[in-house]
Automatic annotation (TrEMBL):
This is GNAT family N-acetyltransferase. InterPro entries: Acyl_CoA_acyltransferase, GNAT_dom. One of its GO terms (molecular function) is acyltransferase activity, transferring groups other than amino-acyl groups. Coiled coil: none annotated. PROSITE patterns: GNAT.
Amino acid sequence: MRIEYGTPRDIEVWMALVKEVRWNFPGLETQEKLDEHRDTVLKFMDKQQAICVKEGNQIVGVMLFSKKHNMICCLAVSPDHRRRGAASMLMEEALRHLDRTKEISVSTFRAEDEKGPAPRAFYEKFGFIADALIEEMGYPSQKYILYPVGSERRERK
């Protein structure tokens, strides 16, 4: 497995992975929403804020991150490639490009959501701490914060 920046030539393979996992992502229920997400991915690719893990010609993991907002925007790994290090590769790469002197945020599933345990444990492994309960795309979520390196703010709210 290798990590690369996503480019427009990857968009079809990238979106094949998104379609494979869309059941696990609120806001990707319709073809219209998938088309909107495709446009978003292309914008992130233009800013070099879209990274992917490839195995051969297949994309097995994707991440969008925002330097402007200092956040992880989207992380997905193919079910066939989970627990093999792809998500960690993506997170480590994104953290190299985000500002570690400021808070980095991500939103994920709430604790009581059946989809929540794996992503929450993953973010916690990287030092993210559960923060505010929020709603995104009409779905109950929870914000997680990675506090700046050396910050005293490490306790759970």
